[in-house]
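task queued by scheduler; priority normal; single chain, no ligands, no partner chains; default sampling; output format set to structure tokens
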Amino acid sequence: MITPNELLINMLRIYSPSNEEHEIRTYIYQLLKEEFKVDKIHIDNAGNVIGIYEGDEPTILLSSHMDTVPGILPVQIDNTKIYGRGASDAKGPLASFLYSSYLVKKIENLPSRIVMVATVDEEGDGKGIKELTNTLRILKINPAYAIFGEPGGAHVITIGYKGRIQLRIKIFTESYHASSLNAPNAIESMAHLLIMLKNYELKLRTANSFTSITITPTIIKGGHATNVTPKNCEVVLDIRVPPTKPINQFLSDIINILKSFNNSVKSEYVVEDLTEPYQSNMATSLVKAFRKAILQEINTEPKFIRKSGTGEMNIFAHEYKIPIITYGPGDPRVSHTDNEYISIEDYHRSINVLKRALWILSSAPF
């Protein structure tokens, strides 16, 4: 029987950046079908793997992503840590979900139905989680609870994520010789617009990062010759919004700034992503089950956190009005870095916490 460490190391040795998940998808499919012996297994139109351990209600969904950011890292193990791309984000959490669901269903005979999902493209455009809601409807799966896998630590429960707006803005002007005095310049105009947006961000900033908006330029392009003023400039903005007001109100504010800027130059924009923020209800059976499981397993009160990024549970939560949290081993501070690792103790503790929480949920009202 494969051990938890062997499972994670096998997954880490498979390079799987977004849109290159074929090999790890095959590995997880074969693992679930042949070794963990799920009752049913599917690969959906996006490439997500869905393994079903049949049982009674409540149906509990466990989902974590199998893709990583680009960049190959050597897989290493010492007495305390396992190193490799995805060790923290999120092959560690995914491995803990895979192993704990197998143990409670096939070894401990948990009566509840467990749906184990490995999604694609979380680090990309999120096509895996966007397709998953359609897949569950086709399979007639209606989960009562959903747990999403991301690093936080075995004693940590993530109860909130900011929303996200991805906005592409283009500015157009006439071109002149670069030596022309006071000639319009699309790059300079874009710089002025970015300053206006930064002032808007600062006006709304609070002492808490979760309740603050951030507007971050991530890609910028402009100009076509070294001796000609640029006639166009394009920027992509990554905007993270708190749940302090509806996301469309933030978007409206930003569009109004852009419209006020249009008096001097021509511009256009495209909203490429709009993901609502999400906060879990602390009073649900799901949160209570994980709190109890952490107290029993680690003998400490859980730490509840709200992250400034955006997770898969945001998208899922606005399709399914059910209790949802994010949980998983790993230190998010080392995610996406060249020193990515997971604590072996934290990894094993999370498996035990998950087992306890699933048993508690199995008998909880829903």
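post-processing summary
- The chain has nine helices and 16 strands.
- The chain has a mean pLDDT of 94.
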